[in-house]
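Q: I'm writing a short methods note and want an example of a predicted protein-small molecule complex. Could you take the sequence and the SMILES for zinc ion and return the bound structure as tokens? Please keep the output block clean; save any remarks for afterwards.
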Amino acid sequence: MSVQAWQHRSMAKGKAKHEARLQEISLLGKDLARRAKQRCELCGGKGDLRPYDADPNQAPTMSSIALFCADCRARAEGRDDPEAELRFLEGAIWSDIPAVGETARAMLGRVDAGWARAALEML
Ligand SMILES: [Zn+2]
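A: Understood, no commentary inside the block.
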């Protein structure tokens, strides 16, 4: 098989895998919406709510998926916002939903502020 044919085949495989995962996540959509009550599970906002996949290496479950707004999805992917806009993390780090609590703790760890360090020390 040529390199190109091999590349094409592995790309098609990757795409099929990605689509199967989106399908699995969409099956959790109803339970997720019920749990989140149409609010972002991190900040409580209502803008463009979509499932966030906190652990892409495991099969998606209600523990690894959370409903996040567009801002929180961007923050989870590494966007750093002014610390004053991130105070909701003080409460979110205590969430008993792993996808919410772990994401909040990771975000809070990037916040360079006294209140953020104090909140993490309380855990
Ligand atoms: Zn949010």
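A: Remarks, as requested: Residues 40, 42-43, 45, 68-69, 71-72 surround zinc ion (CB under 6 Å). The chain has six helices and two strands.
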